[in-house]
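Please produce the structure of this protein holding nicotinamide-adenine-dinucleotide.
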Amino acid sequence: MNLRILITGGAGFIGSHVAELLLEQGHDVAVLDDLSSGTKDNLPAGVPVHVADICDRSAVQGIFQQVRPDGVCHQAAQMSVSRSVREPGFDAQTNILGLINVLEGAAAVGAKRITFASSGGVLYGDVDKPAPENAPCSPVSPYGISKWAGEKYLEFFANEHGLSAVALRYSNVYGPRQSPHGEAGVVAIFCRKMLAGEPCLIHGDGGCVRDYVYVGDVARANALALTCPLDSPFTPFNIGTAVGTDVKQLELALRQEFARATGRSAPEPVFGPPRAGDLKSNLICPDAAAAKLGWRSEVDLRKGLPKTFASFAACG
Ligand SMILES: NC(=O)c1ccc[n+]([C@@H]2O[C@H](COP(=O)([O-])OP(=O)(O)OC[C@H]3O[C@@H](n4cnc5c(N)ncnc54)[C@H](O)[C@@H]3O)[C@@H](O)[C@H]2O)c1
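Below is the modeled complex.
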């Protein structure tokens, strides 16, 4: 069935991949974005972009009345953990009050389904075995707290306003179009460094383990979560691979890809002091998404790193 979907943050990294996939599947797509980190260039031509801040309640309500979406994919957020520590009020304003504006807009026009970009990386904390959705949530940063509170608001709106809501708890997402300027996108940062002929900086001993999931797989999880029948008004799903890779292994795999793709060698990495607050290990279990959404990651690092490296190399 052809649906009309409004993607908040659709001009960003993940949102633009969701937009591309939904268009390919024949849905109508509109984007709400303040273009603070995203850009219209990330989107296929012709996608309507409503430029507004989700914190501007009346602008958000006006856009919902104009678009009248069947479904909402909420990606817009303040997404830096360290900025959330420096400016917890700004984080809460965007990630909690902005989300409430979006939920009110969705409820006002009778949207049926909302997917919410949550984070398995910050909800479960340090875990050395893949955490399932019912593992205790113990966010330690304001960003983690606002994602956790966001899920609670989703559940409230689902129960109170008949919206069907899905929280997708992503692990570490990587792929083409990720900003290398943020601190979260280690793959993007390393690709840019190697292409500039500079060594990658590894914080600490490089032993921090993460669960890397390819952005195309995350887009597919959003598309399934917007359309799949679900038996509960609110459902959280982990969207990750349960496969751990440490930073040293990731850097080496990218250096090998650099050598294969360019015929040159990239410099050896340099090591700096560990970063305060970096988790030792974070992995999430995606079995519930497999059972209920029919979702599994299809692009592992072996396939995803070459695609990502090629996209950064093509950008020059
Ligand atoms: N990238 C990851 O590894 C990861 C992991 C877990 C969760 N997430 C979540 O996924 C979502 C998308 O992240 P991303 O990596 O694509 O980041 P991104 O910065 O590329 O995309 C965010 C988009 O939201 C827009 N935006 C930001 N603040 C806004 C506001 N106040 N009003 C309207 N638009 C606004 C930005 O312009 C941008 O286009 C975020 O909610 C993030 O917290 C990302």
